[in-house]
Design brief:
Length: about 240
């Protein structure tokens, strides 16, 4: 959620204009001054209108306040009270965001727990003490990596609902990294594999990105599914 308050309109300090009405009819744009004014107005309006919180406001009251502020008219509400109202609204946004985040965390954790409980009964699924589960799809050969090993792998990562968030196959280039630099669930499964092997890993939230997730990529408390192909142990 965008927490930027609509009360803060920094762009308005760059120009002054006046108008007799709030019509959205087409403007006359014959001169540069007209085009400048329209451009600043449109860009500010686009930013305000794109804010999902704008729908929380009475538009007539918002526009009246905007125009009276630009015209430097006397406010209908004392400024100290307006600052209190702005802070109150901002706190409401924070409380709403926190509540939504907590609900998302709980729902995702519940979905992860239910999936793992059912998945543990599937033939071929191996469960580790940490809660990580994996299924061997192809046995490799040679020595398994150690916790400090550097490995080369191909992988595909997805969420429980099947949305892919990372895929080395699509990039056309395997990844190389030290095992002690990856999430615990990844490391745990790779330690069971041997070069040339393939496995499917089911990683519970606390062995992945936990309660924080990765904003914009992975939701909090998400169970992650990885298809992993260990190509090579570069350094033991």
């Amino acid at each position: 959620m965008n927490k930027k308050l609509l009360f803060t309109l920094s762009a308005s300090s760059l120009f002054i204009f006046s108008c007799d009405n709030l019509s959205s009819d087409s403007a006359t744009l014959e001169t540069n001054d007209q085009r400048y004014g329209y451009s600043f107005g449109y860009l500010m309006g686009s930013e305000i209108g794109a804010n999902p919180n704008f729908d929380d406001f009475d538009r007539d009251a918002f526009l009246a306040g905007l125009m009276q502020g630009i015209s430097q008219e006397e406010a209908q509400i004392p400024q100290e009270q307006m600052r209190t109202l702005a802070a109150e609204y901002q706190q409401q946004l924070i409380d709403k965001q926190n509540a939504e985040q907590e609900a998302l965390q709980e729902n995702n954790q519940r979905a992860a727990d239910e999936f793992l409980a059912n998945n543990s009964t599937v033939e071929g699924i191996n469960s580790l003490e940490s809660g990580v589960q994996y299924q061997v799809e192809e046995e490799g050969e040679g020595e398994s990596p150690r916790e400090s090993s550097t490995v080369r792998v191909h992988y595909r990562g997805s969420t429980l609902d099947g949305v892919t968030f990372d895929n080395s196959y699509e990039r056309g280039e395997p990844a190389e990294f030290q095992l002690d630099a990856v999430i615990p669930g990844w490391r745990a499964v790779l330690l069971t594999m041997r070069p040339g092997g393939k496995a499917k890993a089911f990683i519970p939230p606390d062995q992945a990105y936990g309660i924080s997730g990765i904003p914009g990529v992975i939701e909090p408390n998400s169970l992650l599914v990885f298809e992993i192909e260990l190509l090579e142990v570069i350094e033991y």
